[in-house]
Design a protein that fits this description.
Largest sheet: 8 strands, antiparallel, barrel
Order of helices and strands: HHHEEHEEHEEEHE
Structural class: alpha+beta
Shape: globular
Length: 230
């Protein structure tokens, strides 16, 4: 009797319910169907909920860490492209090399961002299709991560982080003449103080291109690596 009691105590509530049902064959078919629905449908719903959570990552710079989250559910093309570069080690010894502020922006409307990219020796993957903010629903707000580009469908590994809201970079904005805006895919969740510290750096290279004059850092801030969190 003690052994039987011990065995019973080790049963989970779900297993005990199954045992009760199968002890009377065909007597509780409806109850069995309901129970199986609970056992198998609910875990699938929980799994789906878990998959909708943003993928988090840490940008380790020479100054400190910047924690980000990547919206693979809202911007699957762009976010998964960024993750692919992380997994390939593209950002190992990468850099934040450009800062755009109101006092040095040579475009219109003026914006405020810092721009980063992969290791100069890394060979970029093929460019991705432009996933606009109209598609993703992710606006260019303070801390938003977005892809740098020239023509539509030309983004590869270069990205930028917004300092303050930048509506002119959204779909329909006028910063880019084509009106398509830029592809957002994530957000800084910790470390905006580091982003702003980079943004304040004024030591710039002397370049011929008038558009980026005063923006290209003499001593880029190193991205030591970007690590995906489990």
């Amino acid at each position: 009797m003690e052994k039987q009691a011990s065995f019973t105590n080790t049963l989970t509530s779900q297993n005990w319910m199954l045992l009760m049902i199968f002890s009377k064959p065909f007597a509780n078919v409806s109850l069995l169907i309901i129970l199986l629905s609970v056992l198998f449908v609910v875990p699938q719903a929980q799994s789906s909920e878990k998959s909708d959570k943003p993928q988090q990552a840490i940008i380790q710079t020479s100054l400190s860490e910047i924690h980000i989250e990547l919206y693979t559910n809202k911007a699957p093309i762009t976010a998964n492209n960024f993750i692919r570069y992380i997994q390939a080690g593209a950002f190992n010894q990468g850099r934040f090399y450009r800062v755009v502020r109101l006092d040095n922006d040579n475009g219109s409307p003026k914006i405020e961002v810092i721009q980063g990219g992969a290791n100069l020796e890394f060979k970029d993957f093929a460019a991705i299709n432009l996933e606009t903010t109209a598609q993703s629903g992710i606006k260019h707000l303070d801390g938003t991560l977005s892809m740098a580009r020239g023509e539509p469908n030309s983004a590869t590994s270069m990205f930028f982080i917004c300092v303050g809201p930048q509506p002119s970079l959204d779909f329909g904005g006028t910063r880019n003449p084509d009106g398509q805006g830029f592809a957002t895919f994530g957000k800084v969740i910790k470390g905006m103080d580091i982003v702003k510290k980079i943004h304040r750096i004024k030591d710039a290279l002397d370049v011929e291109d008038e558009y980026v004059k005063g923006q290209m850092l003499s001593n880029p801030i190193k991205i030591q690596h970007i690590r995906l969190k489990p």
